[in-house]
Amino acid sequence: MPHLFTPADYRNMPWRNGGGTTCELFRLSHPARPDDFALRLSIADVAQGGPFSLFPGVDRSLMLLEGAGMLLDFGTHTVRMDRPCQPIDFPGEAAVDCRLLDGPLRDFNLMVARDWGQAALRVLALAEGAELALSGCQWTLVHALAGQLRLGGRLIEAGQLLLLQDEAVSLRAGPASRVVVVEAGATV
To answer: Pfam families of this UniProt entry (predicted)?
Structure first.
């Protein structure tokens, strides 16, 4: 049965390194370590540069949502993130230092514990009336960045998150819809 999360369901949490806060959209507890996550989606408002929090054993996907962007220094190379909705992947144990390009920004984070499973993130811009067919992964999360989606008679609006577990469904896009789709599953 699909579950719809709204901003009232999300949790604001401090960053692990104390440098800011993030809005946790979804957290799946790790089966072997209930205080840790197996899968986590969040949106962070970043007001200043500095080091990223370390998450050993976690695979991360990060993408810019709003703002001019940032320069990520991995020590051996740098990555310029200045185009919205272009995710980059990196290990959570990587020492990353962030420099903002021109003021505050907002970013989207996907984190997956490697000893639990894997996840893939994609961003889709959908024309009005387009159908988004989801195949029924173990965990499918659809976050509406803009516009609206319909699941039968159910409306999913910008800022909301749809959770599906082992369900194949089709969503119909409203005008100017943009969504983040995360498909994840345990491999242990």
So the answer is: HutD
Helix or strand (DSSP H, E) at 88: strand 88-91
Percent of the chain predicted with pLDDT > 70: 99
Do 5 and 163 meet the contact criterion of CB atoms below 8 Å apart?
A: yes
Both tokens of 154, joined, read 């159910």
Residue 133 Cα distances to 3, 10, 116, 158, 173, angstroms: 17, 26, 26, 19, 11
> Max CA-CA distance within the chain?
51
Task: For the chain, list the domains and their CATH numbers.
Answer: 10-113 (2.60.120.10), 117-186 (2.60.120.10)
DSSP label of 33 = -
152: Cβ contacts below 8 Å, ≥ 6 apart: none
- CA-to-CA separations, 105 to 5, 19, 62, 76, 78, in angstroms, rounded: 23, 14, 13, 24, 18
Structure tokens at 40: 């986590």
Find the length of the chain: 188
CB 28 within 8 A of CB 182: no
Q: What three-state secondary structure class fits 164? A: strand
CA 18 to chain centre: 20
Q: Compute CA distances 10 → 4, 26, 86, 90, whole Å.
A: 11, 7, 24, 25
